[in-house]
Amino acid sequence: MSTEVSNEQPAALKAKAAAQGLTVQDLLKKLAHKAAESTGVADTHAGLWYLFGDPRLSMAAKASFETAANSRRKILLSVISLAEVIYYVREKPRSRVGLHDPDHVPEEAPVTAEIIEALIDVPRSDIPDMPDSIVAATAVYFGVPTISRDARIRVSKVQTVW
Fold first, then answer.
1. Cα separation of 72 and 27, whole Å?
2. For residue 131, which of 116, 151, 121 has the smallest C-alpha distance?
3. Cα 11 from Cα 135, distance rounded (Å)
4. 119 and 137 in contact (C-beta within 8 Å)?
5. How many CB atoms lie within 10 A of CB 151?
6. 117-143 pLDDT, tens per residue?
7. Domain 38-161, CATH
8. Which residues contact 67 (CB under 8 A, 6 or more apart)?
């Protein structure tokens, strides 16, 4: 991912940088760093199953999380997946997992204008579900595989681990 910035930066990028008290250049560097320390993007199920030690997580997916942990790298969870996690587990008090804990392998990945633009590389005919498309586009943007058991994602051109 390039950290070069043109003179005509998208308004959303400028607003996101301003909200974080950063210049656009610094925000792009921060995103580039996040990409460099990440080894994959987990979908909602893979993220939940990893966090709760669910046996439905495949051996390959579990190995991806363990490899990231052992190398002190991260697996990204799109904000859309975080919303789905809260939606699915809000009734379960035990489910409040500290995703901002630096010792946890999963880390939040924001949905940025650049990730939305990466949706162009994820054909709707391949992955018609919008949250899944955003997860896949996040992986495409960061140049890492998607960790997912979703059949539509796995047969798409998006690199997938399962």
1. 22
2. 116
3. 23
4. yes
5. 9
6. 999 999 999 999 999 999 999 999 888
7. 3.40.50.1010
8. 39, 73
| Helical segments of 8-144, H only | 11-19, 24-36, 44-51, 59-70, 79-89, 113-118, 130-142
What's the rounded Cα separation, in Å, for the pair 99 and 161? 22
> Could you tell me which of 118, 112, 116 has the C-alpha nearest to residue 141?
118
| pLDDT tens digit sequence for 52-108 | 899 999 999 999 999 998 988 889 989 898 888 777 776 554 544 555 555 667 888
Tokens of 151: 């059949």
Report residue 86 as tokens: 């809260």
CB atoms closer than 10 angstroms to residue 44? 22
Q: Where exactly are the structural domains of the chain? A: 38-161
List all residues 6 or more positions away from 154 whose beta carbon is below 8 Å from its beta carbon.
148, 160, 162
pTM across the whole model: 0.72
Secondary structure of residue 23 in the 3-state scheme = coil
- Which is nearest to 81 in space by CA: 147, 36, 145? 147
| Tokens coding 106 | 């999963």
**Which tokens is 6 given?**
């043109």
Are residues 140 and 41 in contact, defined by beta-carbon separation less than 8 angstroms? Answer: no
